[in-house]
Design brief:
Helix content is 23%, strand content 21%. The chain has helices spanning 122-140, 177-187, 193-204, 245-266, 312-315, 324-333, and strands spanning 9-13, 18-22, 71-74, 88-91, 95-98, 102-108, 147-154, 166-172, 208-211, 215-218, 229-233, 272-277, 292-296, 319-320. By secondary structure, it is of the alpha+beta class. The protein is globular and about 60 Å long. The structure holds 5,6-dihydrouridine-5'-monophosphate (H2U) and zinc ion.
């Protein structure tokens, strides 16, 4: 058997059917542990220039209400529009296109410009979870919406346009690529893939980062990004709407503890893209789905050293140096 801590090996991602190359020998150099200064200056609680702050004008002249908790609005630059006809074009099986109707929204987590998930009050973050449930129900109930993707881009490094705490929701007619691949994986097994995976991770704890009554956070065995994590519901729930009162608070709690850990890792507000994967809203029960979230943070060695998926990774397979076990260990230590 190869040496997990020395030998190059590849690991299989059963959710996507893809392999990741792990080259642990490349991390032999000792960890320096340097903490570099934060890239972004501290933010004020209210920014008159921010298009998400209460009472401020947005693009197109709409003015935000003086909201004091959460605030949801239709994206002024929506990537999807509800009235698009879902027509299909096809030529010789090679040129294929489909009209894609949908709705895009923005959710402000708080009126305060300078908060993040990590430092919001737990009851306020719990309110955000309630909004996710409401939006999943509202958007998912529309006949032309079959998938609701809730996601957060945080930090300029991940393309977030604004530090004001917010997420986006894109909901549309067809299943996007990533959930479609996961759905194929869920359907290919008789037992739930992520119930089984969570049981394996709980038994070893090697890759565990956080845990509460309802959720487990691990650096997945097949993680591509250095400090990628997956938030798994311990019970088999198909979507956020199946969380009862305590479960919703537990979700807020686990997201808070995970992002706070990220922030402590390099002493900066940690950039990431995160989002939930859950059952499609096409009306079928989709009992195969297991509710979970993915955190994809780009940072590798410090606040300013990020990982790029380039070269071999674009043309061959993704690759990582630090093992998922070592990454989980580091995250547990901070
Ligand atoms: P990101 O920070 O993840 O880019 O999200 C901000 C979204 O806000 C983005 O999708 C929208 C952008 O289209 N937006 C508005 O809807 N109105 C505005 O006035 C500016 C930005
Ligand atoms: Zn703001």
């Amino acid at each position: 058997m190869f040496d997990w801590k020395q030998d190059p090996h590849r690991r299989f991602n059963p959710l996507t059917g893809e392999w990741v190359l792990v080259s642990p020998h490349r991390t032999q150099r000792p960890w320096q542990g340097q903490v570099e200064p934060a890239a972004a200056p501290p933010q004020p609680a209210y920014d008159p220039e921010c298009y998400l702050c209460p009472g401020n004008p947005r693009a197109g002249g709409v003015r935000n209400p003086p909201y004091d908790s959460t605030f949801v609005f239709d994206n002024d630059f929506a990537a999807l529009k509800p009235a698009t006809p879902p027509d299909r074009f096809q030529r010789d099986g090679l040129l294929i296109a489909e009209g894609e109707p949908g709705i895009c929204r923005v959710v402000c987590f708080s009126p305060r410009h300078n908060l993040t998930i990590a430092n919001m009050d737990l009851p306020d973050l719990r309110r955000v979870v309630d909004v996710w449930v409401e939006q999943f129900a509202d958007l998912g109930a529309r006949p032309f919406i079959n998938y609701v993707q809730i996601f957060e881009n945080r930090g300029a490094m991940m393309g977030a346009s604004n530090p004001h705490p917010h997420c986006q929701i894109w909901s549309n007619h067809t299943l996007p690529n990533e959930p479609a691949r996961e759905q194929r994986a869920f359907l290919s097994r008789s037992a739930c893939l992520l119930c089984d995976y969570a049981a394996l991770e709980r038994a070893s704890a090697e890759r565990t980062v956080e845990e509460n009554d309802a959720f487990l956070v691990v650096v997945p065995f097949w993680a591509v990004w250095p400090f990628e994590t997956m938030v798994l519901s311990k019970r088999h729930l198909t979507a956020v709407d199946q969380l009862a009162d305590a479960g919703r608070t537990a979700l807020a709690d686990i997201l808070q503890r995970t992002t706070a850990r990220y922030d402590r890792l390099f002493g900066v507000p940690f950039p990431y893209s995160m989002g939930f994967h859950q059952r499609p809203t096409d009306g079928a029960p989709h009992d195969e789905w297991h509710f979970h979230a993915h955190f994809y943070p780009p940072l590798l060695r410090s606040a300013t050293v990020r990982k790029f998926l380039v070269g071999y990774e674009m043309l061959g397979s993704p690759q990582r140096d630090i093992t998922p076990e070592a990454a989980a260990h580091r995250l547990r230590q901070v």
